[in-house]
Design goal:
By secondary structure, the chain is an alpha+beta fold. Helices cover about 40% and strands about 20% of the residues. The protein contains six helices and six strands; from the N terminus they run βαβββαβααααβ. The protein has a six-stranded antiparallel sheet, with helices on both faces.
Amino acid sequence: MEFQVGDLLFYRPHSKGFLGFFERSVCLLTGGPYCHVAIILDASDKHTVAQSLSQGFVISDEYGYLDYCLHKGWADVYRLDIPMLESQKIAILEACNEFKGLPYDWGDILDIAVYRLSGRRFSLGSAKRLMCSEAVEIVFMRAGVILRNDLDTGFITPNDLSQSPLIKKVS
């Protein structure tokens, strides 16, 4: 598959142990198939990906692993429904480099869980931390694309993003 800068990777639960439990819990709480989302930054064979993980916001080459996930059916690729401008691609790269090293926002995860279970909203998250879907939404906002204008950025989930009318599934 030919990737493009700004393609979104939506992951399904596939891990074992605690991480697998966490992935399945995210899907259960959000009512959808996806537990994680990342951004393709490099259209070459290196498959450079930006994502917010437990160790923080990272940019890494996923060559091999990404193809393996797609082959196993653990991930889907979505793309903007309209062509991305060069200036938007640059804005995505710049935002990802700026966010590199920011810690993961476990507070937002807790906020979402409490809200989905009780209907009560808290504000345990931090503007200096990012969960995966929040990072994707903010990166795209920096490029002038608002994937979901109907949801609070800190409460947006991978499944919410996958329902954006601006993107389509390409694999």
